[in-house]
């Protein structure tokens, strides 16, 4: 594959925003809104045990310390502020500068799985209302300013996607993807109170958080080089705990490598080790790819026709909701163990948070109606095409890169410049970084990124002599471009 890119001082093509936004983005960004170091120098009383190093150690996070680099202070209004309007003018100025910084940061957004290609102008009319979905989505409470009718419509759509009939499912719109995982694990724990939680080492941290919160016994399972769960190791772990039920987290796209655990192989492994369906519970964490995979040809299906207990996805990722939210679906037979009557609501509650953002279901409903299954299928195909394009560009430039077959997450060698990493908001882990190709990530934006990476890379090595590091342990020998593994 040949990747032709043009280095240019203009980056307009990379800007996903339109109209006057481009002109605003050209103005300097005030210091308080610029990307800066999270931490300054460590104070003398901080020991090595109190700090965590990220990647190559250039950025330090100090435990037990509030270290801030910038702050927009809140001050009391002066007596004559209401008359002069100075405070309103000041706040308007701050917000205008902040908007310009958002435009600039959005232009260089590549490392995190958020779809920034959306327009919800039609929903601005609802901003004046305090919409709160309290308690069970299917039982109306005394609080009347809610959006349950939208919430249930969204839940029905996802239940159809995952092949569960209306009378067989229960679910709700969560406040984030982590809440969906917390709820899925909680349902599993309530169904199997003495169960052991199994999760691969590349599982999202929220599953490990759930284990700590619920004081559950946790077993971490090894992964393959792709990031997928190693079912051979999984089998050995199960055999060590045959006397206890299994609560299993299955990743439908891991956080760093975008790897998809083989759900059928997980189920087969459970059955081969003697776990009947009444002795295991499977939660599927589909934060990003749980919505993409149904539209990928040859991809294995996530469906409730298989013996799974719950599925969760994030609404602010592939769907493109502008605020964090998610969808959690489980079997209705499981939810009675969690439901509690709440008299003052005149409802019951089996959710984690109770109060939920009532605007989120409306945003999700609006997008699902506009795009539908066919619209999402087109966007998925575009993302996969562009991800393969990016991988080809990187490899053509002699940069190690990996892309799992069913994923849009391109993994490559970590840039050796934290300024570059922060500018492009790359997610990094150890020796690797990744770009998550979302619907708003265009070929032009990828060309702009690759050009800048190629242009800056020699400056990260002594005398400009690029030495490609070996990251075969992270992405496999076949994807590594170092001198020992480059087969070109």
Automatic annotation (TrEMBL):
GO terms assigned for molecular function: carboxy-lyase activity; pyridoxal phosphate binding
Coiled coil segments of this chain: none
Keywords associated with the record: Decarboxylase, Lyase, Pyridoxal phosphate
CC cofactor: pyridoxal 5'-phosphate
This protein's record includes keyword Signal: no
Transmembrane segments: none
Record has rRNA-binding as a keyword: no
GO biological process, any: carboxylic acid metabolic process
Pfam families in alphabetical order: Pyridoxal_deC
Source domain of life: Eukaryota
SUPFAM superfamilies reported for this sequence: PLP-dependent transferases
Modification N6-(pyridoxal phosphate)lysine occurs at: 317
Family: Belongs to the group II decarboxylase family.
Alphabetized NCBIfam families for the sequence: PRK02769.1
UniProt protein name: Serine decarboxylase
Organism taxonomic ancestry: Eukaryota, Viridiplantae, Streptophyta, Embryophyta, Tracheophyta
């Amino acid at each position: 594959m040949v990747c032709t890119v043009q280095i240019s001082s203009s980056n307009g093509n990379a800007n996903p925003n339109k109209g006057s936004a481009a002109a605003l983005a050209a103005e300097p960004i005030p210091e308080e809104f610029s990307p800066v170091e999270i931490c300054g120098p460590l104070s003398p009383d901080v020991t090595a045990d109190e700090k965590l190093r990220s990647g190559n150690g250039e950025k330090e996070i100090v435990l037990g310390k509030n270290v801030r680099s910038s702050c927009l202070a809140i001050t009391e209004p002066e007596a004559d502020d209401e008359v002069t309007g100075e405070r309103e003018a000041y706040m308007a100025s701050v917000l205008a500068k902040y908007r310009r910084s958002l435009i600039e940061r959005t232009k260089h957004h590549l490392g995190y799985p958020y779809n920034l290609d959306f327009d919800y102008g039609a929903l601005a009319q609802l901003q004046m209302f305090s919409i709160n979905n309290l308690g069970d989505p299917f039982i109306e409470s005394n609080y009347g300013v809610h959006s349950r009718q939208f919430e249930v419509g969204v839940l029905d759509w996802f239940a159809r996607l995952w092949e569960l009939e209306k009378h067989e499912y229960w679910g709700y719109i969560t406040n984030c993807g982590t809440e969906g995982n917390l709820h899925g694990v909680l349902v599993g724990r309530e169904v199997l109170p003495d169960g052991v939680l199994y999760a691969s080492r590349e599982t999202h941290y929220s599953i490990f958080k759930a284990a700590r919160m619920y004081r559950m016994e946790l077993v971490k399972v090894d992964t393959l080089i792709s990031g997928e769960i190693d079912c051979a190791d999984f089998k050995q772990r199960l055999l060590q705990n045959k006397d206890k039920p299994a609560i299993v987290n299955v990743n439908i796209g891991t956080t760093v490598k975008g790897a998809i655990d083989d759900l059928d192989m997980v189920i087969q492994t459970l059955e081969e080790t003697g776990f009947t369906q009444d002795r295991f519970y499977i939660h599927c964490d589909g934060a990003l790819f749980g919505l993409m995979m149904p539209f990928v040809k040859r991809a294995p299906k996530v469906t409730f026709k298989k013996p799974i207990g719950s599925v969760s996805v994030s609404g602010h990722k592939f769907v493109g909701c502008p605020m964090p939210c998610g969808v959690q679906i489980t079997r209705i037979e499981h939810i009675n163990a969690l439901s509690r009557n709440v008299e003052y609501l005149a409802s019951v509650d089996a959710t984690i948070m109770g109060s939920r953002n009532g605007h989120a279901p409306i945003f999700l409903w609006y997008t699902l109606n506009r795009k539908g299954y066919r619209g999402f299928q087109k966007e998925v195909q575009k993302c996969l095409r562009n991800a393969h394009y990016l991988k080809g560009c990187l490899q053509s430039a002699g940069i190690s890169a990996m892309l799992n077959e069913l994923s849009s997450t391109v993994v490559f060698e970590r840039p050796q410049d934290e300024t570059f990493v922060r500018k492009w908001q790359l997610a990094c882990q150890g020796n690797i970084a990744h770009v998550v190709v979302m619907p708003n990530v265009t070929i032009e934006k990828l060309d702009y990124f690759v050009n800048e990476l190629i242009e800056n890379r020699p400056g990260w090595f002594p005398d400009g002599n690029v030495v490609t590091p070996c990251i075969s342990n992270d992405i496999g020998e076949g994807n590594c471009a170092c001198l020992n593994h480059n087969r070109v």
